[in-house]
Amino acid sequence: MKIAILGGDGFVGWPTALHLSDAGHDTHILDNLSRRWIDTELGVQSLTPMDSIQERTRIWHAETGRRIHFNLIDLARDYELLKKWLAEHRPDAIVHFAEQRAAPYSMKSDRHKNYTVNNNVNATHNLLNALVEIDLDAHLVHLGTMGVYGYSTIGAAIPEGYLPVGIETTDGETVSQEILYPSNPGSIYHMTKCLDQLLFQFYAKNDGLRITDLHQGIVWGTHTEQTRRHQQLINRFDYDGDYGTVLNRFLIQAAIGYPLTVHGSGGQTRAFIHIQDSVRCIELALTNPPARGGRVEIFNQMTETHRIRDLAEMIARMTGSEIAWLPNPRKEAAENDLVVHNEKFLALGLDPIRLEDGLLSEIVDVAKKFAYRVDRSRVPAVSAWTKDIASVINHDPEGKRLKSVS
Ligand SMILES: O=c1ccn([C@@H]2O[C@H](COP(=O)(O)OP(=O)(O)O[C@H]3O[C@H](CS(=O)(=O)O)[C@@H](O)[C@H](O)[C@H]3O)[C@@H](O)[C@H]2O)c(=O)[nH]1
């Protein structure tokens, strides 16, 4: 297939581009390099040393003889350029990662809220609009999030996208209907992914677009089979308070002797998936497109669930790290259970990498190896969900909060 990877310079986008190119697909990255600009804005850098996208693709060609093409295009702002590129290249499939993906960054200030909404919603809508305008029947695979469901405490399993409900009619009869699982976003970022879902429903219904939405959990790990092939193909690894996700943060904290930063009681249960499984799932989704005129296909892209404090305690046991129980910068339930259906990917042959199999090598191979690149002052999470919470956590983010170490 000819595949366009929108956002192919990012944490999941880059290993996906390598994986699909390795599988023989004609791979084209479209990216505005915004993640690199945001690193500069925040004064942080990936734990792993990353080369430019042009250099990365040059190394890939030298190693494998395969070409990954790079195009500097901003989906949210350059609608005409995007449309022109799609019309000229007419890809068979499109993988859409081109959105601002950090919840804390999206809550940082009013400017960051506006940026995240404008960027994410425009990017998705521009893409859908262009596909219709140029009559391109490409299968669109979108990286969504488990966070669209929210983290309810009612204990019912989360289905793969659609929920059967019984509705009482005016005649007093009960009719059954399948609805999109009710959205319950926990951040501005997650809210944009809920809005994406509505855009997909409309364009699938109105224009017959073929769309798959992957509701992905928290990704952990760094390497995939292809990123290991050369040191300059290495994936990015974020550890800072805005872009670092929880498990990868704990790994690097353990490697540099920084107390593990658990928010609140750590009672939040979340869904997880290894980066290698994430790229496999995207390939499985690409090779199983929905029919034209059918409904949006939705997969839950996660392989296991864990409570945050259990993860911290597991890593503390493995490494001797301390745990810091910090005031939570987020507005979220202190405790929640999470049961998720993920049978669809398992039925397509996914054989998941389990946390207990991969964790130790991730600490040794990546976290310890590059620990010298860490700026400890960038570890605390300082983006608060509300002004009230900000007043509690922001005046002494490191010193004061780290007194509560166990
Ligand atoms: O140092 C930390 C960092 C986070 N947390 C807690 O860990 C949980 C998860 O936080 P996270 O930063 O790992 O994940 P999140 O903000 O939900 O976002 C990440 O995971 C989402 C999948 S999901 O969480 O919605 O399933 C993706 O969509 C996002 O792109 C990705 O950045 C939260 O309860 C948070 O309070 C801590 O206790 N300590």
Molecular structure report:
The protein is of the alpha/beta class and 406 residues long. It has a domain of 283 residues: 3-Layer(aba) Sandwich (Rossmann fold), CATH 3.40.50.720. The strands form four sheets. A seven-stranded parallel β-sheet has the order 3-2-1-4-5-8-12, with helices on both faces. Strands 9-11-13 form a three-stranded mixed β-sheet. Strands 6-7 form a two-stranded antiparallel sheet. Helix 8 crosses helix 12. It is globular, with a radius of gyration of 21 Å. The chain starts with a strand and ends in a 13-residue tail after the last helix. The relative contact order is 0.15. Bound molecules: sulfoquinovose-uridine-C1,5'-diphosphate (USQ). Sulfoquinovose-uridine-C1,5'-diphosphate binds next to helix 8, strand 10 and strand 11.
| Beta-strand content bin | 15-25%
Overall geometry: globular
Low-confidence stretches: none
Determine the structural class based on helices, strands and strand pairing: alpha/beta
Task: Summarize model confidence as the mean pLDDT.
Answer: 94
Enzyme class: hydrolase
InterPro entries: Epimerase_deHydtase, NAD(P)-bd_dom_sf
GO molecular function, one term: UDPsulfoquinovose synthase activity
EC number: 3.13.1.1
